[in-house]
Amino acid sequence: ETGVTQSPTHLIKTRGQQVTLRCSSQSGHNTVSWYQQALGQGPQFIFQYYREEENGRGNFPPRFSGLQFPNYSSELNVNALELDDSALYLCASSFRQGQETQYFGPGTRLLVL
Amino acid sequence: AQSVSQHNHHVILSEAASLELGCNYSYGGTVNLFWYVQYPGQHLQLLLKYFSGDPLVKGIKGFEAEFIKSKFSFNLRKPSVQWSDTAEYFCAVNRNGGATNKLIFGTGTLLAVQP
């Protein structure tokens, strides 16, 4: 166990809806990264938050957005859901100083119908 | 473009067999290298990491990996696998000292160990 928690564990939505996924970082960590893992693929970087600011973004459209709160927990919001958004969404926390190892939560599995 | 290649998508071994999983990366500059493992029904866990120093790194559960800079490789090895090593293994890389601690993952290798 890493101490990174995510909620909910599973979610079913329909096309066009919006979804919010939540992540609590490991104690002492101030950076949260979000990844999308499609079936049979490796995780792909969505974005990272550090001190409540977006600190880098992968190749994802603007309908993917996020927040980080003062306690370093984070949300991932996806608007106008598409079928291809069905995936496991992973949150990872780290401490942004020097060499950083990311520790992953269990993920939220999203199914878009 | 930055990328990580894992050559073996599926590997089936018998218990006590030796394991080597290939990983090559394409990334400009100095890199940090990682192997993560995902056991069935569990979250991604760090197996081992290389930041600098001795290119042969040892991780948990008897795994080790060797960084060969000239070959852009970071292959994972274990001399004798167990049934409990059945899992999916991911190689990942990020830029050493980069402003964003973004991990680039390979597509993973699914290892099945037969008892």
Q: Can you offer a commentary on this structure?
A:
The complex is a heterodimer of chains A (113) and B (115). In chain A, 0% of the residues lie in helices and 50% in strands. Chain A is mainly beta and 113 residues long. In chain A, the strands form two sheets. In chain A, strands 2, 4, 5, 6, 9, 10 and 11 form a seven-stranded mixed sheet that branches. A four-stranded antiparallel sheet of chain A has the order 1-3-8-7, with no helix packed on it. In chain B, strands 2, 5, 6, 10, 11 and 12 form a six-stranded mixed sheet that branches. In chain B, strands 3-9-8-7 form a four-stranded antiparallel sheet, with no helix packed on it. In chain B, strands 1-4 form a two-stranded antiparallel sheet. Chain B is globular. The interface between A and B is medium-sized, with 28 and 24 residues.
Précis, in short:
Helices cover 0% and strands 50% of the residues of chain A.
Largest sheet data of chain B: 6 strands, mixed
What is the rounded Rg of chain B? 14 Å
Could you tell me the mean pLDDT of chain B? 93
Total strand segments of chain A: 11
- Indicate the proportion of strand residues of chain B: over 45%
What oligomeric arrangement do these chains adopt?
Answer: heterodimer
Total helical elements of chain B: 0
Mean pLDDT across every amino acid position of chain A: 93
Uncertain stretches of chain A: none
The secondary-structure class of chain B comes to mainly beta
Record field, number of beta strands of chain B: 12
The computed structural class of chain A is mainly beta
Q: What is the N-to-C order of secondary-structure elements of chain A (H for helix, E for strand)? A: EEEEEEEEEEE
- CA radius of gyration of chain A is 13 Å
Topology:
The complex is a heterodimer of chains A (113) and B (115).
Chain A: E1 5-7, E2 10-13, E3 19-24, E4 31-37, E5 44-50, E6 53-57, E7 64-68, E8 74-78, E9 87-94, E10 103-104, E11 108-112
Parallel strand pairs in A: 2-11
Antiparallel strand pairs in A: 1-3, 3-8, 4-5, 4-9, 5-6, 7-8, 9-10, 9-11
Chain B: E1 3-5, E2 10-14, E3 19-21, E4 24-26, E5 31-38, E6 45-50, E7 56-58, E8 64-68, E9 73-78, E10 87-95, E11 104-105, E12 109-114
Parallel strand pairs in B: 2-12
Antiparallel strand pairs in B: 1-4, 3-9, 5-6, 5-10, 7-8, 8-9, 10-11, 10-12
